[in-house]
Amino acid sequence: MPQLSLLFLFFLPFISSSDDYKYSITIKKDDYNSFVYAGCSLKYTPGSPYQLNVESLLTSLVNAADFSTYANFTSSTASAAAPAYGLFQCRADLPLSNCFSCIRSALNQLSSLCPDAAGATVQLRSCFLRYGNESFLGKPDNTLLYKRCGGDASGGYASDVLGLRDAALGSLTAARGSYRVGGAGYVQAMAQCVGDLSAEACSDCVESAVVQLKAVCGFAVGADVYLGKCYLQWWSNSGVSSSRHGHGDRKTLGIVIGLMVGLVVIIVFLSFIRRAGSSGK
């Protein structure tokens, strides 16, 4: 059966300012459904029993989002030989009305980004939706799927904010439950595990998220990491300065370099035309 191979199709704008990391607790309403990442596997055969099972599964997931922030289902109505497995989850403190809206949005984006995929996942800011043809329910997965890092803290690790970050992240690993909120000083952090994990597997996932966040985001002021079965965010509520070596700066530099290269090509081309015209006289 086709395996889910995560293909990052689109990304949220890279945050290079620490102030942008104030969203996690007081998130704006229009940010609930902001896109983070999506992944698709190979396509199933149209009209197959598996397609019918997937359609039944997705319908069950969306309907369940009307009264729950987490649910998982296995659909084998059309054929027990080709079951479809899936789940959805919203952030634990999300109102049900917003959860339902988020899952509906995730399903709509899944349909456009991964049409006829045998397996797919869509992560939005406050919810995610996943299904596949091989059961992943209850199985730990600490694979890093997506990261987003802010600009580096001025002063590197000597910066006070990184000491507070470590304390805030430590409060998450010491906590229990699938949804965890912690903080230290003006730094706050949040983590959530998928509802199908055991308490031990959830703690392992959060600990792995902390380690991987520090490894991939280094001195960044604010970061998000999404693992296979949990995610973690930390942000500063203070105007901490950073060197702003973020993706947005690199993108701007790339545009400038591209324009300069284009200008050089045009100058060389016009020079060639001028010389060709002179030699023809």
From TrEMBL:
The keyword Signal applies. It holds the Pfam family Stress-antifung. Residues 1-17 form the signal peptide. GO terms for cellular component: plasma membrane; plasmodesma. InterPro entries: Cell2Cell_Antifungal, GNK2, GNK2_sf. It is a single-pass type I membrane protein. It is found in: Cell junction, Plasmodesma; Cell membrane. Keywords: Cell junction, Cell membrane, Disulfide bond, Host-virus interaction, Membrane, Repeat, Signal, Transmembrane, Transmembrane helix, Transport. The chain crosses the membrane at residues 253-273. Its main location: other. The keyword Transport applies. Residues 32-136, 138-239 form the Gnk2-homologous domain. Belongs to the cysteine-rich repeat secretory protein family. Plasmodesmata-located proteins (PDLD) subfamily. PANTHER family: ANTIFUNGAL PROTEIN GINKBILOBIN-2-LIKE, PLASMODESMATA-LOCATED PROTEIN 7. This is Plasmodesmata-located protein 7 isoform X1.
